[in-house]
Design the sequence.
């Protein structure tokens, strides 16, 4: 039975005991030895495959290469055997926090892995790189990785259900630091006190502004969750040495809620599993069929369909205007409501175009397809007819779609909207979509074969056939993997692939 943790700010003289603190409640979830349900195990396997797929597709991109080089420039710390780095040989190891950093950037770079949206945003698959890196370094087996990831997904998703960060312009990785710390605590079978201290530091060091996702979006967008995972590992290390962290981190009068979120009078009700209750939150998350911001997924599917059914809509000469009636979040974050002129700039960065639903809808409508590289190329973005159509597309907030976006009923929760296309002759085309085709309630819900197909599609250009099969075999046997096999749970690039990637030099 789910319980509710009521969260508010406490004055220092109230002396809130740790037993009443959210960080303590999250640590309690981490130490609960409840078994992981079979369907949760299956989904964890799916998401490990998904992470490796999108990491493979990004191996030669500059931000990923820079992070990888940073990791490889750090020797393995003496407390274990180190962790693997995506793309590198099995023997090439780095210290776990740096491996988590490199692998986290690879996973996040293309904005192409799993998502959960509620009061805030999240990509809970970002928990996998730090958990797996620590497991490899310390000799964790597959069953331990499963338990750890069930905890990490549960903690992050429960926080996202209740606490809005973006409303106060705080980046969503502030929910990731605590979840990764909790997951690592489960992995290492740490006590509640140690995990509590690690969660406190992980939160304290991973709160930052949302400017990383505003205006001209930089390559830090991919690095932010990797940084949170790295900080979580360092927080666990420090807590294991008996060191303490700011407390109460959420509830203190100078804490996160009082000064970074809703203020001294704010309250939140965080749903958490009761003691002995299965950790099933991962099943409420969903992956991406397309490499784009999650709130664009359904719109891509609708645009592809419309472009196929009505080829005349692809020509800007035939279109007077296109209005996407959608949720508050979609309108203000990736739509025209953001006020970001970069969202209409054909020379904008890939990261910016990924957060421009007018651009995405225009390209998907014209191409009746979406590709993780080709759809973002400068040549594609600068095409004259695309720019003309793109600049006729705006978004508008619709109260009903906002309500459905925030609905707690999974059967009506929606991330799409209604499109109104006014043609040059005055006629109007209208259509709508609630969820992406790949969503659990969509037209083609993602299942194991879809995750495997996505992996093969993205991995084939950079991995040898035998390497693809080796990884898939290991991933799909995750619960039974030995510690030695967990240390091989990575992807090794074809000879010469990494040599083609940029090799930027830095301080290390």
Sequence:
């Amino acid at each position: 039975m789910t319980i509710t943790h009521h969260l508010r700010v406490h004055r220092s003289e109230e002396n809130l005991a740790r037993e009443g603190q959210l960080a303590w409640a999250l640590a309690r979830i981490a130490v609960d030895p409840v078994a992981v349900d079979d369907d949760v195990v299956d989904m964890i396997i799916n998401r490990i495959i998904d992470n490796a797929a999108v990491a493979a597709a990004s191996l030669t991109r500059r931000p990923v290469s820079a992070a990888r080089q940073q990791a490889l420039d750090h020797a393995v710390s003496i407390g274990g055997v180190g962790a693997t780095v995506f793309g590198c040989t099995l023997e090439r190891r780095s210290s776990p926090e740096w491996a988590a950093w490199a692998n986290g950037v690879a996973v996040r770079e293309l904005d192409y892995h799993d998502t959960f949206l509620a009061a805030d945003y999240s990509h809970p698959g970002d928990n996998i790189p730090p958990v797996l890196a620590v497991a490899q370094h310390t000799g964790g087996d597959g069953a331990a990785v499963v338990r750890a990831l069930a905890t990490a997904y549960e903690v992050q998703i429960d926080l996202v259900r209740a606490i809005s960060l973006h409303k106060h312009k705080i980046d969503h990785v502030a929910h990731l630091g605590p979840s990764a710390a909790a997951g690592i605590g489960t992995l290492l079978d740490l006590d509640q006190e140690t995990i509590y201290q690690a969660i406190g530091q992980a939160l304290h060091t991973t709160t930052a502004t949302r400017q990383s996702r505003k205006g001209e979006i930089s390559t830090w967008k991919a690095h932010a969750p990797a940084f949170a995972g790295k900080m979580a590992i360092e927080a666990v290390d420090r807590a294991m040495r008996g060191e303490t962290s700011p407390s109460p981190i959420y509830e203190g009068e100078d804490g996160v809620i009082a000064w970074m979120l809703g203020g001294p009078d704010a309250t939140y009700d965080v749903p958490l599993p009761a003691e002995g209750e299965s950790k099933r939150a991962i099943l409420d998350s969903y992956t991406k069929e397309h490499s784009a911001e999650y709130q664009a997924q359904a719109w891509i599917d609708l645009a592809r369909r419309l472009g196929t059914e009505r080829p005349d809509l692809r020509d800007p000469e035939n279109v007077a205007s296109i209005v996407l009636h959608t949720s508050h979040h979609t309108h203000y974050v990736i739509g025209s409501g953001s006020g970001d002129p970069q969202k209409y700039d054909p020379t904008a960065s890939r990261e910016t175009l990924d957060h421009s639903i007018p651009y995405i809808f225009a390209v998907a409508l014209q191409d009746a397809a979406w590709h993780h590289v080709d759809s973002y190329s400068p040549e594609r973005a600068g095409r004259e007819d695309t720019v003309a159509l793109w600049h006729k597309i705006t978004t508008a907030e619709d109260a009903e779609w906002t309500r459905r976006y925030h609905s707690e009923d999974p059967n009506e929760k929606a991330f799409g909207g209604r499109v109104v296309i006014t043609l040059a002759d005055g006629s109007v085309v209208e259509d709508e979509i609630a969820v992406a085709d790949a969503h659990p309630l969509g037209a083609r819900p993602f299942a194991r074969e879809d995750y495997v197909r996505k992996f093969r599609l993205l991995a084939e250009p950079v991995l040898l056939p035998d390497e693809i099969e080796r990884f898939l075999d290991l991933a799909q046997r995750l619960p039974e993997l030995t510690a030695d096999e967990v240390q091989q749970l990575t992807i090794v690039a074809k000879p010469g692939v990494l040599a083609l990637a940029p090799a930027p030099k830095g301080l290390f």
Notes: The first strand starts at residue 2 and ends at 8. The mean pLDDT is 96. Residues 2-284 form a domain with the 2-methylcitrate dehydratase PrpD fold (CATH 1.10.4100.10).
